[in-house]
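Inputs:
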Amino acid sequence: KQSQSKISRFFAAG
Amino acid sequence: MFEARLTKGELIKKVIEALKDLVTEANFDISATGIQLQAMDSSHVSLCALQMKAEGFDHFRCDRSMPLGINLSSMSKVLKCCNKDDIVTLKAEDDGDSINFMFESKDQDKISDFELKLMDIDSEHFGIPDTDYKATVTMSASEFTRICNDLSILGETVAISVGKDGVRFSVSGEMGTGNMTVRDNTSSDTKEADRVEIDMEEPVNLNFALRYLKSFAKAAPLTDRVSLCLSRDVPLLVKYEIPEFGSLSYYLAPKIDD
C-alpha cells in the first residue's frame, strides 16, 4: 500500500 | 516603482495558464533581477517555481524588492483580454495596493488597461536543495503532455522507471494496465523537437499522482522541451526552460510505501 507524501517532507522551510 | 514591458505578452498569459490549476493565489516576488514565484498546491504535494529574468523583458525596472500577492484566477481572467500579439506592461507603485496591466495591440490601435487589487499572502518559502539527480530525461513537451493525458484514462498513479531500455511510464487501474516506453533516440536522425535524451547514472523507479503531472503539462505551450529529473526518494522535478526568459519548474512528492 502506498500513500502520497507531502512536499514539505523533502524541502526545508527557509 | 515596478514596471515591466514584454513584447511577447503572450508568454505571461501562458505562464498563468500553467499555474492556475495548481495555485489559487501567490506572491510574485519582484526584484531588480526579475520576477520569481514559489507556491505549493492546496494539498501541499507539489511546488511550482517560476523564474522570469529581468533581461527577458523589453523593459524592466524595479526600485524596491517586494512581493505582489495576486489571485491567479483573477489574473487569468484579466489576461483573457490580452490578445495573442499584444504587448503587455505590468506596473505597481512601491506602496500601492494594486497592480496595473496594460495590453497594447501590435499596431498600437487598441490599448486596454486593468487594475487588480493586491492581496497579503502568507507564503511558506522552501529552500530547494541542489540535487544530483540519478536520471534525467529530456523530451518533447507536447509528447510528455500526451503521455500524461493518455495514461490517466487507466489509473491515477503512474510508475516512472528509467532503465537501460529507456523510460517507462506504467499505469494500472480497474480497467487494466498500460505502459509507454520512450527510448533515447539521440544516435538516430530524429529531428530536434522529437529528440529523447536519457542520462542515467543508476536505474530509478518512482510512483507519482498523474493528476499533478497533467497540471504541470499545461506549461507545454511555453516551450518545446521538458526535462524530468529523478532520484530515489526525492521529489520529481519537471522543468520547462523558456529560452531567453526563464523557467517554470514543478516538484512533485513521490508516493511512498507505508
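Chain B touches chain A at residues 40, 43-47, 124-129, 157, 207, 209, 234-235, 251-258 (CB under 8 Å). Flag for discussion at group meeting.
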